[in-house]
Amino acid sequence: MIKQLRIKDYILIDELTANFDKGLNVITGETGAGKSILINAIDIAFAPRVSKEVIKNGKEKTVIELVIENTKHDLTQLFEENGVDNFGSEIVLTKEITQNAVRSRVNGTLVNQEFIKHLKNYFLDIHSQHQTYAFMQPKYHITLLDNYAKDSYGEKLHAYREKFKEYQNLISQLENLKTASDVTENQIEFLQFQVNEIESANITSPDEDEELTKELEVLENAEKLKELTGTSYWAINGDDGSILEALGKIKQNISKAAAYDTKLEEIEQNLIETVENLHDIAGELRNYSQNLDNDTERLNQIQERLFQLDKLKRKYGGTLQSVMDTFENLSKELNAIEFSTQNIEELEEKIQTVRTELEKTACEISENRKNYAQVLSVLIEEKLEKLELPKAKFKISVEPKELCADGIDNVEFMISTNVSEDLKPLAKVASGGEISRVMLAIKSIFAQSDDINTVIFDEIDTGISGKASQSVADEISELANYHQIILITHQPIIASRADKHFYVRKSQNDETKVEVYVLTGENRIKALAELAGGEINQQSMEFAKSLISA
User: Fold this and answer.
1) How far is the C-alpha of 193 from the C-alpha of 195, rounded, in Å?
2) Which end of the chain is less congested by CB atoms within 10 angstroms, N or C?
3) Burial class (CB in 10 A: 0-12, 13-18, 19+), 419
């Protein structure tokens, strides 16, 4: 659920923190006060695109932060795959909007919109008059039905989906085999030539050419290197006038001096170490110079090898790694061709066997779906009647389709809210008041099987009054037992059921500001009285008190 919303420099809000509770969180306020700003801020936190116009005038950026409590979902894999720290049950989602960029962070880590989309699917369902609800989209209907009936055929559906993945892999293998079997004899011969050409080169490593080039440079400059290192050796350790001879004399002098002043002992020791190091260097230079041969045969071998490798690089890629990768791919392709002919028939038989199993299981799942669809259709119709839509007809349509990952069923919610109208797709329900109640009816039925934590209703009471308001209030209260509900309402009957009541007020002095308060006690009664009568008087106050005590 959403524990906290923090907003800074957002439209008309300087800074605001709203702490939401479990159950029913109600937002009320005068018309035009900015009640939807809170809900819009939550929606923007999860939105893929955001208008820069939400930045408060004169400010550089808007920051929206949500603190979400997660008690239902295991998000370990999702977080690990995206490099996001997992802080247990608490998730912090931050959206920063500037004139140049929009950035989303989860637990401090920058994330992409695909990640945010996943989070929204887990935690939030927003219902507003101008927004397409998840429940209205046919692609979600089969998921809703399956989630509701998961205790009945959930395991069978899971096993079916795993088997369908196997089926798809087999089909993919068959397509590859058939493609390979269509290759001509000339193509096979050319493929074999390429494999043999690379294989016969016996490339030792991706860096072989670089290593040979370094060795070639040494061989080509052998005489020069021999001269330079030999001369350097004699300069260090020659017979007369060498560096070591000069250092030996200096060392003798310092040793004598150190006998008079111990401060020179450290210098003496350093000289000793320097002489030893120079002896080592001289030895290495002598060995290097003596062992360096002008190996013409080896030089020719390297030149020929580099010529061979360069030829392969020109044909199969700019590097030896590319040549080796090409060899691996060509070998696989050649093996597939040789393997294909004898295995196509065997694979086709296996595919048919798996498909038969899938069709059998899909038919069993389909029967279960149809049974539950009938039960749910009746339950939703009963809810609609309680919500003052007594003439409404509701049907969960389960029609056949081609075998797919979900089975063989096309599931869609159908409804008619008037006696004279035929059933039609839920997405085509026109009346705002009817949509709100239909959504509430469906949500109430699916509440216990729905994994979404927070449901937001933006003015769900639009177009209803009187008895319908009472019915909506009852259903929302029931729904709040299973979900955190955040809603905007103009109906005192609905607002009176709140577990937490927020009041939004707009003030206009030097500048326009929106402020949000949590109402309790007498202040809450006054707000309900104002909702009921348009003004606060004795009659509206008495009515508000009766709602609270009911």
Assistant:
1) 6
2) C
3) exposed
Contacting residues for 332 by C-beta, under 8 A, at least 6 apart:
none
Is the distance from CB of 457 to CB of 436 less than 8 angstroms?
yes
- 198-203 long-range contacts, Cβ below 8 Å, gap at least 24? 198/312, 198/316, 198/323, 198/324, 198/326, 198/327, 198/330, 199/327, 201/308, 201/309, 201/312, 203/309, 203/312, 203/320, 203/323, 203/324
Half-sphere exposure of residue 264, counting CA atoms within 13 Å on the CB side? 12
Contact 305, 313 (CB under 8 A): no
Contact partners, residue 454, CB within 8 Å, separation at least 6: 1, 2, 123, 124, 125, 483, 484, 485, 486
pLDDT digits (tens, 9 = 90+) for 253-288: 888 888 888 888 889 899 889 888 988 898 888 888
φ, ψ of residue 429 to 5 degrees: the values are -65, 125
Token digits of residue 286: 């002598």
Q: Give me the helix-helix angle, 320-386 and 150-181, nearest 10°.
A: 150
DSSP calls for 490-527: S-HHHHTT-SEEEEEEEEESSSEEEEEEEE-HHHHHHH
pLDDT tens-digit readout, 75-107: 888 898 889 998 888 999 999 999 989 999 999
Question: The tokens 């069923």 sit on which residue?
Answer: 409
pLDDT band at 177, cuts 50/70/90? confident
Work out the end-to-end distance of the chain between its first and last CA atoms, rounded to an integer number of angstroms.
28
Sequence ranges of the domains in the chain: 207-318
- φ/ψ of residue 213, rounded to 5: -65, -40
Alpha helices in 292-319 (DSSP H): 296-316
pLDDT for 398: 96
Q: What is the mean pLDDT of the chain?
A: 86
Which residue's entry shows tokens 């955190």? 484
Q: Are 111 and 67 in contact (CB under 8 A)?
A: no
Determine contact, residues 515/505, Cβ cutoff 8 Å. Answer: yes
Element housing 232 (H / E)? helix 222-237
